Amino acid sequence: MVDHRQRHTDDWLAHFTRRGHRAPRPLAAGVEGAVYRLGEGLVAKVWSGRPPADLELSRRVHADIARHPLPFATPEILDSEVHEGVLVTYERELTGSPFRAEPATTSAERDLPAAETAALLTVLRALATVPGTEAMRGLTVQGDDRPLWRDRTRFPDALAALVRRATRRHGDVLAAHVPGLAETVRRVVDSLTALPDSPVTAIHGDLVPPNLHVDDTGRPTAVLDFGFFTTAGDPAFEAAVTAAVWDMYGPHARHHTATLTRLFARELGHRPETLALYQAAYALTTYDLFSSDGDDGHFHWCAALLRGQRATSTR
């Protein structure tokens, strides 16, 4: 699996020291950038990956979410600067520790702990109470070239249009790994546009273990790193994607995805068919985000998900 995380450097530590922060230190690193703890409840995010296309829009989205009384904290952008051509945002520090700082690739429990599934349900239920806003509708999901909701009034239609655009980017590469890809795309697009109207709420879109922080009892304390697939949309999409990406590469990943999909369908009232549809749409819209030639773990994960769904549908 290719590691696409950004790296910490001493140059950034020196920069934050010059700005008056006494003991900056590395905190975390991901696809979009590296995060440094500055002290006094403040962190700096160095956007060495893809920065927000519209920082003010991102600030509004964070504010729209943070103003709601959720049972956990969410990010707020307090200040920003551009240093040597790189965007840096200064945000409030979020408490707690991630469920796992690294993906589970070598060992993991076959059955997810009850505290883990309870925390996921708490987060999904809470985010589903945050209404989708115009700022959220104005966001562009990673890999695309326009706001997801542009010229659309319904989330399923906006997602269907994204599927069409995304599979035109490098669909020939994906087709080499997914037999019958054209038929799969047609089925997903038709099924999305046939979905009934649903509530439109805040969608995080990347609820993986490092982005969900908990306290010593397993209670969620913070949800962070909005931006990868953040938008306004159907809360069933959030549940579907979370079930799929919570464990992508562990030895029991398929079992965990199936378990969480069933759990979210039962506890949150979503149709299993809708969750499976949204999972296919996620794979079709994110397969090429880390490489255009299919030479990465995420691409192969997306291809495997699509092959698995096709095999199930043709039985």
From TrEMBL:
<feature type="domain" description="Aminoglycoside phosphotransferase">
    <location>
        <begin position="25"/>
        <end position="248"/>
    </location>
</feature>
<keyword id="KW-0808">Transferase</keyword>
<dbReference type="GO" id="GO:0016740">
    <property type="term" value="F:transferase activity"/>
</dbReference>
<protein>
    <submittedName>
        <fullName>Phosphotransferase family enzyme</fullName>
    </submittedName>
</protein>
<dbReference type="Pfam" id="PF01636">
    <property type="entry name" value="APH"/>
</dbReference>
<dbReference type="InterPro" id="IPR011009">
    <property type="entry name" value="Kinase-like_dom_sf"/>
</dbReference>
<dbReference type="InterPro" id="IPR002575">
    <property type="entry name" value="Aminoglycoside_PTrfase"/>
</dbReference>
